[in-house]
């Protein structure tokens, strides 16, 4: 009986140590801080008002681009007494940046439209990601949900193995059961699986944009449209 109790306490200590080490081994503190930084930076952009304003602005940009290409630019050569080829050479020589930007409008504007569409499509996913672990706790608290129970289990196991006090062993067993139940029930009570899927969906949707190449492309597109 004593051997069985010792093995149970040793196992509890190992499980506690594993819980304690897991956030450090997986760099969870840095990752959850990154989640908080990301959601904090984009929170205002994902409000209903901001999304409506962004969609409206995008519609205006598309209309302006279309009107400029369909109406204004075709009429300018005649107004300036030039044929289309002369006008193109004139623009290239005198306004090279504007000429380059105009030539890329059919590529740049759809890219921006894709971003706006993505923002609208991922609004619900963002709100779920922003509520990890809850709507009122930051993601940075998640590592401590492993560290604190792990520390409790480890310390209790060590204390029980050293003192062998029956009351302490009984209390440690009860604590281990409660912590185990919390780890089983809490993820479902807090909708963690659904929130995790939302994070995967959102990061997958914007993975190209958030890459170094994608970010540089967006920056170049912004420069062209200014």
What can you tell me about this protein's structure?
Residues 1-21 form the signal peptide. The chain crosses the membrane at residues 136-162, 174-192. Keywords: Membrane, Signal, Transmembrane, Transmembrane helix. With 226 residues, the chain is mainly α. The chain has one domain. Helix content is 85%, strand content 0%. Helix 1 (2-25) packs antiparallel against helix 8 and helix 3 runs antiparallel to helix 6. It is rod-shaped, with a radius of gyration of 29 Å. The relative contact order is 0.13. The model has no long low-confidence stretch (mean pLDDT 90).
Brief descriptors of the model:
226 residues, mainly alpha, 12 helices, 85% helix, transmembrane, signal, transmembrane helix, membrane
Q: Can you lay out the helices and strands and say which pair or pack?
A:
Layout: H1 2-25, H2 28-42, H3 48-79, H4 84-94, H5 96-103, H6 105-121, H7 123-129, H8 142-163, H9 166-189, H10 192-205, H11 207-210, H12 212-225
Helix pairs in contact: 1-8, 3-6, 4-5, 6-12, 7-10, 8-9
Signal peptide: 1-21
Transmembrane segments: 136-162, 174-192
Keywords: Membrane, Signal, Transmembrane, Transmembrane helix
């Amino acid at each position: 009986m004593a051997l069985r109790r010792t093995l149970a306490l040793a196992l509890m200590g190992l499980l506690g140590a594993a819980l304690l080490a897991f956030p450090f081994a997986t760099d969870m503190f840095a990752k959850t801080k990154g989640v908080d930084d990301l959601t904090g930076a984009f929170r205002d952009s994902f409000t209903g008002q901001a999304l409506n304003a962004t969609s409206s602005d995008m519609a205006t940009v598309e209309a302006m681009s279309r009107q400029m290409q369909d109406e204004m630019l075709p009429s300018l050569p005649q107004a300036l007494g030039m044929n289309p080829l002369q006008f193109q050479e004139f623009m290239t020589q005198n306004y090279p940046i504007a000429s380059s930007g105009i030539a890329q409008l059919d590529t740049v504007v759809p890219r921006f439209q894709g971003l706006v569409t993505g923002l609208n499509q991922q609004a619900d996913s963002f709100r779920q990601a922003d509520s990890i672990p809850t709507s009122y706790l930051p993601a940075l608290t998640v590592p401590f949900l492993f560290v604190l129970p792990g520390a409790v289990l480890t310390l209790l196991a060590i204390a029980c193995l050293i003192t062998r006090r029956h009351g302490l062993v009984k209390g440690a067993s009860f604590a281990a059961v409660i912590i185990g139940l919390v780890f089983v029930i809490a993820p479902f009570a807090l909708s963690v699986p659904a929130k995790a899927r939302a994070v995967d969906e959102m990061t997958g949707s914007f993975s190209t944009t958030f890459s170094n190449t994608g970010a540089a492309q967006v920056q170049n597109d912004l420069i062209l449209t200014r």
